[in-house]
């Protein structure tokens, strides 16, 4: 048995189970060097909330690897340089990794693979974080699907739903000394101020946390998912698996396997996994999805940039309680309910006429589940500029949405506590409350809680006029 080591390069696959690169390397019986590189040469860095999650996820992965006899080597810098140094120091002749699909990381991987292959090393890459490759589900004419429903219908006929790979029982570790940088040296955690600690109570980060979240969801909430997924006032209406998926602490195949016992019950939930797959199809074929309109006719749209309105939206100070609750939930927990994401995004784009790219950037920075494909595709979906998008003239009403999906105001009261004493009748439209009701509730509009920064009816008509102008 060869003592020449294999390097397994971890990226957004921070787990030991159902990790094809790790399993394939362990299967050889050769020494395995587990490496994570905090890359400094990628075009787009992770956002602040993702950095916070990454720190704790790497701690969890380190502990999981230790249990099977492996050590996680941490390095910061350019991946190709670090791999070069590690190969020279250890004599490794193979590098395994799981594929990633954004344009710039793919270019980095392609260059590394080309260089190392020319030098006689073995490079193996694997599909680990999707059920099918973004290029594998084609239309009859050989193109990619631009509408979700036919895509998902076709994808389900060919996606890989085989049994997930178990975690290796034991890994043969490299016997030599390898320098590893301290995780703290990456400076992923916020310090001045430490806004990350306020998110900690909401999450159990790592593979164990992912498995626990999945089990809790499948033990009950999945049965009412079709309805409850729209209710932000219900704590367990959604799975909360999105950040675990974003960092690869759990794979979509593991989720599918767990749902196999009752696919009919889980069908709506699994279609959301399908939307994630579809988003990667769009990103793969449209690498600038986060920065350029998918539909070029939106290039002519006239936005109304306004720093003050953008700031008030970011801070949850728009004067629309349902919108503000969502933006404050995002700031406090690093996550926002999906129904509310649609409403807050629509408000920024259509009520304030602020470019969807500003919202995408804010979510990229503040979401713990900031996924490069899903975030960009979803913002373009709301804007009407994307593939299979909601039409631009679909403008979410920010108070009737609240009345429908937060009927008792529980969600608003939790995240906008200055309104908690308002009766249900006025919790989503405090401006309609009589002066006496406002006084008894301790609400002083314009002081303790802002007045609406824009009139809904006026904003709606302005948005429709702006959209019409691009079509003429």
Overall CATH architecture of the largest domain: Orthogonal Bundle
Summarize the amount of helix as a percent range.
40-55%
| Poorly predicted spans | none
What's the β-strand tally?
5
Q: What best-fitting shape do the alpha-carbon axes yield? A: globular
Strand residue percentage:
5-15%
Biggest beta sheet attributes: 5 strands, parallel
Please list the strands of the largest sheet in the order they lie side by side. 3-2-1-4-5
What is the ordering of alpha helices and beta strands?
EHEHEHEHEHHHHHHHHHHHHHHH
What is the overall number of helices? 19
Average residue-wise pLDDT? 96
Tell me the count of domains: 3
Rg computed from alpha carbons, rounded to a whole number of angstroms: 24 Å
Q: Just give the CATH class of the largest domain.
A: Mainly Alpha
CATH topology of the largest domain: DNA Cyclobutane Dipyrimidine Photolyase, subunit A, domain 3
Distance between the termini: 71 Å
For this structure, what is the CATH homologous superfamily of the largest domain? DNA Cyclobutane Dipyrimidine Photolyase, subunit A, domain 3
Instruction: Briefly note the structural class of the backbone.
Output: alpha/beta
């Amino acid at each position: 048995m060869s003592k020449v080591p294999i390097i397994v390069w971890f990226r957004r696959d921070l787990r030991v189970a159902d990790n094809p690169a790790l399993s394939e390397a362990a299967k050889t019986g050769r020494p395995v060097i587990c490496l994570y590189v905090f890359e400094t040469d990628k075009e787009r860095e992770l956002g602040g909330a993702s950095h916070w999650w990454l720190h704790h996820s790497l701690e969890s992965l380190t502990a999981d690897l230790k249990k099977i006899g492996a050590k996680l080597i941490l390095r910061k810098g350019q991946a190709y340089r670090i791999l070069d140094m590690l190969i020279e120091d250890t004599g490794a002749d193979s590098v395994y990794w799981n594929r990633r699909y954004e344009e710039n990381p793919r270019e980095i991987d392609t260059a590394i693979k080309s260089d190392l292959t020319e030098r006689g090393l073995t490079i193996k890459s694997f599909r680990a974080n999707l059920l099918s490759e973004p290029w594998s589900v084609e239309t009859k004419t050989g193109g990619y699907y631009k509408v979700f429903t036919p895509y998902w219908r076709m994808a389900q006929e060919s996606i890989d739903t085989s049994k997930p790979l178990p975690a290796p029982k034991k890994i043969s570790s490299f016997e030599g000394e390898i320098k590893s940088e301290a995780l703290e040296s990456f400076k992923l955690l916020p310090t001045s101020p430490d806004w990350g600690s306020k998110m900690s109570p909401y999450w159990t980060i790592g593979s164990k946390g992912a498995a626990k979240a999945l089990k809790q969801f499948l033990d009950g909430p999945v049965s009412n998912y079709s309805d409850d997924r729209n209710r932000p006032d219900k704590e367990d209406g959604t799975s909360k698996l999105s950040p675990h998926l974003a960092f690869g602490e759990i794979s979509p195949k593991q989720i599918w396997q767990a749902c196999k016992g009752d696919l009919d019950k889980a069908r709506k939930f699994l279609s959301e996994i399908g939307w994630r797959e579809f988003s990667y199809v769009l990103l793969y074929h449209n690498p600038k999805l986060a920065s350029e309109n998918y539909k070029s006719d939106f290039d002519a749209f006239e936005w109304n940039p306004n720093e003050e309105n953008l700031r008030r939206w970011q801070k949850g100070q728009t004067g629309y309680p349902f919108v503000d609750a969502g933006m404050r939930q995002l700031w406090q927990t690093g996550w926002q309910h999906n129904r509310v994401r649609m409403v807050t995004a629509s408000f920024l784009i259509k009520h304030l006429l602020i470019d969807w790219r500003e919202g995408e950037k804010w979510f990229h920075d503040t979401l713990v589940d900031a996924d490069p494909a899903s975030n960009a595709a979803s913002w373009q979906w709301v804007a009407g500029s994307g593939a299979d998008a909601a039409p631009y003239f679909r403008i979410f009403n920010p108070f009737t949405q609240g009345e429908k999906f937060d009927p008792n105001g529980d969600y608003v009261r939790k995240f906008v506590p200055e309104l908690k004493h308002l009766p249900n009748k006025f919790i989503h439209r405090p401006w309609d409350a009589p002066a006496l009701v406002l006084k008894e509730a301790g609400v002083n509009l314009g002081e303790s809680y802002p007045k609406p920064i824009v009139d809904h009816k006026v904003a709606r008509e302005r948005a429709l006029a702006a959209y019409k102008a691009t079509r003429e």
